[in-house]
Design brief:
This protein has three domains: 2-255, HUPs (Rossmann fold, 3-Layer(aba) Sandwich); 304-403, Four Helix Bundle (Hemerythrin (Met), subunit A) (Up-down Bundle), CATH 1.20.120; 412-463, no CATH class. Helix content is 48%, strand content 15%. The protein has helices at residues 37-55, 71-79, 84-101, 117-129, 158-164, 203-215, 229-244, 275-281, 284-292, 304-328, 338-356, 361-379, 386-403, 412-431, 435-447; strands spanning 2-5, 10-13, 21-26, 59-64, 133-136, 139-142, 179-184, 199-201, 219-225, 249-255, 258-260, 263-264, 300-302, 450-455, 458-463. The strands form five sheets. It has a four-stranded parallel sheet, sandwiched between helices. Helix 2 (71-79) packs across helix 3 (84-101), helix 9 packs across helix 10 (304-328) and helix 11 runs antiparallel to helix 12. It is found in: Cytoplasm.
């Protein structure tokens, strides 16, 4: 497998530090509000990366943090007349609800910044002792110029960074690019004791401390949105390598932005779209499909029509798996035919080639569509063996479901319950004279191979 390393700007063969054991850290959300679709892209894509690594036989230790204290949390808590802790817990729960809906599996560890203050203080003390950091009136700053290679991730010199960065004027700093490791507490502000007085950690130090605790001094993969490249990840590298004297990360991966039409999504433009709101309008699975439908390093444009198309594609996936199961009821007994096994092997090779080429989920999805087409062709044959149908179903379950999280191969009882629920919804829609919705449900069931019969005794259904 080859991945594009942001630090070297090259495609590189992926080789973990310790054979088949992979350490992976993805920067999690700052939990002062609901996450938006741009946030979700990183969490969802790297969920697939982890799934694929496991498929390839790696043991993955995956860490994703929560930033549960910073200026935005403090400000939001004050506005809502609540505590920072209560606000953070509320939005951590909201985050999990959004991610569960999108099929994102939980990380092995979800550390919170506020639960790792001791580790951060230890790291800051070490940096001061080594001359990489200094204290000024209760604040502690990292000396950016103390690292000659500062800027190596964003590929900018100190002068370029100074001219391009919006650096807050601060007389306490020796250099405008120096960044806070510890912030002196303001009156009535959440704080912790430290050798420099009451205060709280800076943003960047938390990831260095938590990744080191759970994954060690050197990580195999560190990832997040490209907006984190500078200053967050740049500062992580500087402070971590100054702290330990070792290489911090072997492979840096950054995903592109989600645009709203032709515009970049941003708070200043007022076009930020939250996942919690999108889930009320669209199928969560369609949102997952959308976020995986473009190569992760490229920007992706959100639109209503795009998501509707994703929903239609998913219906085709579902119809394919349903038809495979129903065709098995009339298929001949026997193991999979050699030509079917050969075709599935070809699809496997194509899928792996896509994912091994810098984790190209867009091309992997194209392979899923080829597999679905093959499924439709196979079930329409006059004579087919049960083993062939089962093999195709297993392939879709593994690659479309276990890895991509886009194909849900349900058990028969689950399917029956869903059909009954849709029929009940259709009856309610008809009673409310919402004939458009009633017809849409009938069309959906027809696409799944379900025939409805309206009888004096009620609605009956059968499979084609």
């Amino acid at each position: 497998m080859h991945v594009y390393n942001t630090q070297t700007r090259k495609r590189e063969l992926f080789q973990p530090l310790h054979d088949k054991n992979v350490t992976m850290y993805v920067c999690g959300p700052t939990v002062y509000n609901y996450i938006h679709i741009g946030n979700a892209r990183a969490f969802l894509f790297f969920d697939v990366v982890r799934r694929y690594l496991k498929y390839q036989g790696y043991h993955v230790t995956y860490v994703q943090n929560f930033t549960d204290v910073d200026d935005r949390l403090i400000e939001a808590a004050q506005k809502e007349d609540t505590t920072v802790k209560e606000l953070a817990e509320r939005y951590i729960q909201a985050y999990f609800e959004d991610m569960d809906a999108l099929g994102v599996q939980r990380a092995d560890h979800h550390p919170k910044a506020t639960e790792h203050i001791d580790e951060m203080v230890e790291g800051i003390q070490t940096l001061i002792e080594k001359g990489y950091a200094y204290e000024q009136d209760g604040d502690v700053y990292f000396r950016s110029q103390s690292k000659e290679d500062y800027g190596k991730l964003s590929h900018q010199s100190m002068e370029e960074l100074k001219s391009g960065a919006r650096v807050e004027v601060n007389e306490k700093k020796e250099n405008p690019l120096d960044f806070a490791l510890w912030k002196k507490a303001k009156p009535n502000e959440i704080s912790w004791d430290s050798p420099w007085g009451k205060g709280r950690p800076g943003w960047h130090i938390e990831c260095s401390a938590m990744s080191r605790k759970y994954l060690g001094d050197t990580l195999d993969l560190h990832a997040g949105g490209m907006d984190l490249c500078f200053p967050h990840h740049e500062n992580e590298i500087a402070q971590s390598e100054a702290w330990t004297g070792k290489r911090f990360v072997r492979y840096w991966l950054h995903n592109g932005y989600v645009n709203m039409g032709s515009e970049k999504m941003s708070k200043s433009l007022g076009n930020v779209v939250r996942v919690v709101d999108l889930r009320k309008k669209y199928s969560p699975l369609a949102l997952r499909y959308f976020l995986l439908s473009t190569h992760y390093r490229n920007p992706i444009a959100f639109s209503d029509e795009t998501i509707r198309q994703m929903e239609r594609n998913l219906e085709r996936f579902e119809t394919a798996t349903t038809n495979l199961k129903h065709r098995m009821e009339t298929a001949m007994e026997g193991e999979a035919e050699p030509e079917v096994e050969e075709r599935l092997n070809q699809l496997t090779q194509a899928f792996e080639a896509a994912m091994d080429d810098d984790l190209n989920t867009a091309n992997a999805i194209s392979v899923l569509h080829e597999a679905v087409k093959f499924a439709f062709e196979t079930v329409s044959r006059p004579v087919v063996l049960q083993g062939s149908l089962s093999a195709i179903l297993d392939w879709l379950r593994k690659f479309g479901g276990d890895i991509m999280g886009l194909v849900d191969v349900k058990e028969e009882t689950d399917l029956d319950q869903e059909i009954e629920a849709l029929i009940e919804e259709r009856q309610k829609a008809r009673a409310a004279k919402d004939f458009q919705r009633a017809d849409a449900i009938r069309d959906q069931l027809t696409a799944q191979g379900i025939i409805l019969e309206d009888t004096p005794q009620g609605v009956r259904w059968r499979r084609k």
